Amino acid sequence: MERITQAERMLIGGELVEGGGGEWSTSVNPATEEPIGRVPVATRDDVERAVVASEKAWPEWAARTPMDRAQVMNRFADAIAARADEILRVEVTDTGNTIRPMRMIDVPTAVESLRYYAGLGPDLRGETIPATRDHIHMTMHEPYGVVARIAPFNHPVMFAVARTAAALAAGNAVIVKPPETSPLSAMILAEIAKEVLPAGLFNIVTGDGRGAGDAIVRHPRIKRIAFIGSPVTGRAIQRAAAEVTVKHISLELGGKNPMIVFPDCDPEKIADAAVAGMNFSWQGQSCGSLSRLLLHEDIHDRVLKAVVERVSALKLGDPLSETTDVGPVNSEVHMKRILEHCAAADADGARKMLGGGRPVGKQFEKGYWVAPTVYADITPAHRLWQNEVFGPVLAVSKWKSFDQAVEMANSTEYGLTGAIWTNDIRDALRMARKVRSGHLWINGASMHFLGVPFGGMKTSGVGREEGREELYSYTETKTINIML
């Protein structure tokens, strides 16, 4: 077995440890199906140890000034940046994501988020309320104490770090469960955190959802949990947590996101944006991917032709190659699920323009490969319109009237992201007010901006991350009434 990490250990209480049950989980390269590393399978006792360690660590951490916490968080960011290349190569090999966009996005976003929330920490403030004439009424924000983050497989380190930075800045200790199908970069993160952070402040427990994940969700002393993943798993987390105690759970879940294009747009520019918005570099495995392309009938044919040309030119291959545009999907389970969606689209009579199966060629005989796919003439009656594929599959449709476009855009259970393309600011804002999605771009696609809230409506989740709201979400409000 090729050795990817130096430690192959979890981080609990400031120590690199094996699982209490002595079991290991093997990670494979999705491009080749070859074993590339292993991680411990955490038990419920391991999770309990992580909780106890967090409970010991957070009071001292919360008692520090925000500037003291910021200095430590910035050292953590420096240490992660120093090993960026190592983390990058491990994540590319473990996830299947291609190296060029990952180099620009994943570790840099983790580092920038740590610095952003480190700087925002001193702004975590309460307020005074003039409720009465004779007394003083004020609020303050206190950390939950022990919080948990369950990270998804598509961007393991980015979500493990960028989406815990707010919790650390607010004075909490953190328990992270990395994804079971791409956990190896978290082992490097464990080494870094051990050297830089106070013992017990940042804990990493590996394993699957039924074991470590369920133990975290059901632990009565972890009151704040954040999860990114599928709606099915999000609902399961809510149910399991509710069986134990009342918890604050934020969820960023799936999306079947529309890109709505008005007839005054340049078809060539729209084609470029549609391919970028579909996130083919992540194999379409992003909750925010613009997987429904809604084209006005006047430009539909020209845009569709240009999109097919661009998608057919994408280069599949080794994710570590600088010339690769699309790599394999993350796991065999996801590959089979994506191919089932394509088969269902064929059965529904959708017009397949490109892809729809495994790519042809000897190098694709092993690994979890799905060819970049485009279907046309998709309507709300098609399963491909309603179901999140979470793969490199773009559904294209046409519309005629403004109201029809609104109805089509909102005709799924999802509401995470969306894009509106037009040169008329009135049409853009009218449409933005009508579309039931939590994060919209006008004349843009699939970009995140640090400090700007991100999250979904409807089945796509609850809560907002990436901005000031996320910092406050890791605190509880305490009200103090001073009777004069």
TrEMBL record:
Using the record's annotation, list all stretches that form the Aldehyde dehydrogenase domain.
25-480
State the active site: E252
Q: Which Pfam families match?
A: Aldedh
Query: MF terms per GO, please?
Result: metal ion binding; oxidoreductase activity, acting on the aldehyde or oxo group of donors, NAD or NADP as acceptor
Recorded hits in Gene3D superfamilies, A to Z, give: Aldehyde Dehydrogenase, Chain A, domain 1, Aldehyde Dehydrogenase, Chain A, domain 2
Arranged from A to Z, the UniProt key words for this protein are:
Metal-binding, NADP, Oxidation, Oxidoreductase, Potassium
Superkingdom: Bacteria
The entry's family comment says:
Belongs to the aldehyde dehydrogenase family.
According to UniProt, the name of this protein is Aldehyde dehydrogenase family protein
Q: Which organism is it from?
A: Georhizobium profundi
Taxonomy, top ranks, is: Bacteria, Pseudomonadati, Pseudomonadota, Alphaproteobacteria, Hyphomicrobiales
